[in-house]
Amino acid sequence: MSGYIAAIDQGTTSSRCILFNRGGDILASAQKEHRQIFPRPGWVEHDAQEIWANVESVVAETLASLGAGPSDLAAVGVTNQRETTLLWDKATGVPVHNAIVWQDTRTDRLVRALAGEAGQDRYRGICGLPLATYFSGPKIRWLLDEVPGLRARAERGEILFGTMESWLIWKLTGRHVSDVTNASRTMLMDLKTLEWSPALLEAFEIPAALLPTIVSSSEVYGQARGVLEGVKVAGALGDQQAALFGQTCFEPGDGKCTYGTGGFLLLNTGAEPKFSANGLLTTLAYRLGEAPAVYALEGSVAVAGALVQWFRDNVGLVERAADIEALASQVEDTGGCYFVPAFSGLFAPYWRSDARGVIAGLTGYVTRAHLARAVLEATCWQVREVVEAMNADAGMALTALKADGGMVSNNLLMQIQSDILGAPVVRPAVIETTCLGAAYAAGLAVGFWPDQAALKANWRPSAHWTPALDPAIRERRRRFWNKAVKASLDWIEDEDL
């Protein structure tokens, strides 16, 4: 069997390809950013054609850097930014509109109308999700309503819908499929049957002809064409589920937090869906072939690494994202400053699309170093809120947090997170667990790895942080964080939508 597994990670800000060996070690990688398109305040779009070109480019670059070709790959897995919604012409493959990104809030009015008097939990019992602008179903409905002639074309079977893994698999193999983890983020899949829900399709007025076939996270979907000619496309997971899988969280009670564009905490809850009483999402963790599905609870922070990017690009207080660690290290605290980055509303546990970002507690004492530290603390406070909700739902306290994603190379951030949680934080040796999870899923499907035990044997820690903040100070700062969150609410009114 060929000696490498490839993973394609189509993320919110970039696309990349990584090659792994059997030990789960990174052998080669390449990454390329794509444009963030902001047609109006609260609207976020991507050009799917640009993304596909970037994917082809990073795959070719990664293979070339190792002197490898498609014949050296046992399989390729795909992971992706979830909920981002694309419709394209079935015959030509041309998108009918830019992809609407998960962060986009244009469906706020529609979501409120769908909720009606029943409220945002109207469909939670079927799909495990609250009505929110975050998910794909309302975005599909918006496109069908707003793009002239599109609904009629969709009803005639001329248009296809997909989240980004579906788009990439279609471009690679010609098959129109979506894995269960991504399907579970549309608001259209029944969590128990793992099929599209007729009741939800009717409620959202979405023709079934649009939708891909739901498949498992680990099976051979087809053979690739083009730059990966002949390679088996054999794994697909939404990015956060891929990170959970890459962290080998295979047992109920195992959990992780990924610090990327957003922040995402997932907890494996086993073979039965668990519905949250504290604002968390019920979602699919993974499904391997014909085995029973595994479920998870999830808490989502909308803006984490994206706030550092904003601090760099929109405010210009650092030249590189990595510079924020050194700047924030110049001070011991935030100087009483708190940053709530509700750029597109607040996600778990609030689910408030009317919230907007605020900086609170400013005085003449505050410097750019204090602001940098407040940027880092913003992610950590939001993660703590999700952890508290998860502890309440699970009936247990967090003992340690497995952390991964691009932000965890920031050692100061990890120490602040441990201080704010009052619990240890552990970073794995391979922090690119999103790509690793996709590679693992594909590798299991083709026998590159024999079983999940072999994957667990690959996991090893690289760093560990323990709390060093006085608990009384922690709780005092938490009270100020709560005040800042309160100030961010009720900012958008109906006439602003």
Features:
alpha/beta, 497 residues, 6-stranded mixed β-sheet, 21 strands, 16 helices
Can you describe this structure?
Helices cover 34% and strands 22% of the residues. The chain is of the alpha/beta class and 497 residues long. The protein has a 7-stranded mixed beta sheet with strand order 15-16-14-13-19-20-21. A 6-stranded mixed beta sheet has the order 3-2-1-5-12-11, with helices on both faces. A two-stranded antiparallel ribbon has the order 4-7. Strand 19, helix 13 and strand 20 form a beta-alpha-beta unit. Helix 9 (239-246) packs across helix 14 (433-446), helix 10 packs antiparallel against helix 12 (368-394) and helix 12 packs across helix 13 (411-421). The protein is globular and about 60 Å long. The mean pLDDT is 93.
Short structural description:
This protein has 497 residues and is α/β, with parallel strands linked by helices. It has helices spanning 48-65, 108-115, 124-127, 136-146, 150-155, 164-173, 180-183, 198-204, 239-246, 305-313, 323-328, 368-394, 411-421, 433-446, 452-458, 471-488, and strands at 4-10, 14-20, 26-33, 45-46, 73-80, 86-89, 99-100, 159-162, 177-179, 213-215, 218-223, 232-238, 255-259, 263-270, 281-286, 294-301, 338-340, 358-360, 401-404, 425-428, 461-465.
Helices and strands: which structural class? Answer: alpha/beta
Largest sheet report? 7 strands, mixed
Any idea what the shape is?
globular
Relative helix content: 25-40%
Average pLDDT metric: 93
How many helices in DSSP terms? 16
Distance between the termini: 55 Å
